[in-house]
Amino acid sequence: MNERRATDRQASLRNYIKLYLILIRTSVRSRMQYRFNFAFGTVLAAIIQLSEFLMIAIVLAKFGAVRGWTMHEVGYLFAVMTLAKTLYRTFGNEVHNLERYLVEGELDQLLTKPLPVLLSLLPRGFRIMFGEVIQGGAILAWSLGQMLHSGQISWWAIPQTIFAIVTGGVVLFAIGMATATCGFWTTRISMLQNMTEDAAQTAARYPLTLYPGWMSGLLLTAIPVGLVGYLPALYILRGELGLWVFPVLAAASCLVVLLALRFWKFGISKYQSTGS
């Protein structure tokens, strides 16, 4: 009996994955019908992101370093956060946009479908954010290249950084999903997202040593954006902490996403539709 249940679960999981990939292809095709808008949005996103970093670089070029963190190290933090956020928003953008579904009643339609709400929701907003990938990748390549040339880091920093970006994307998705879940009670979540996502992610683009102790602790625990770039950078760039950073990052990313999923399921069970 247990073996049969396990087989049924595996078959259901395979079916869900196949359906998810089909929905992603449908979403990509619909977006590619407007190729000019896609290309223009890509270029504009890259310019906006690059201009943000250039403002930071100008300040660092004048003062040299911030609390001992050089321009290349800050560029690394900026790029890792940008790419992790891009990974999250590529696959989980509609979680970030859940308020629209709640306000316009579209979530009620998803609840009537014979699929988990999250599975129906995520593929709808799938989009490859080429602008952010180009900009974040360029800054990361520049930062790593300069530090490799100076001997500050070795080539091992590259796979370690990729690992940090992937686990960081998972952490940001979990934060976004937990924030969105609050909408099942409040409906409006944009102000909360400004704090838990936008402001927190902007703060984590810089070394956490810039902030008071209570704020650094908050960004490593309650809103753990510090796990995305700052914590791995301490080891990858500076040789601090230890190799244990990577299993801790893997475990932490799994834990936060599991907690966020549990919170999501609880929120769905308490949700009252717009028509009630």
TrEMBL record:
The keyword Transferase does not apply. Pfam families: ABC2_membrane_6 (PF06182). The chain crosses the membrane at residues 38-63, 161-185, 214-237, 243-264. The keyword ATP-binding does not apply. InterPro entries: ABC-2_transporter-like. Keywords: Membrane, Transmembrane, Transmembrane helix. This is ABC transporter permease.
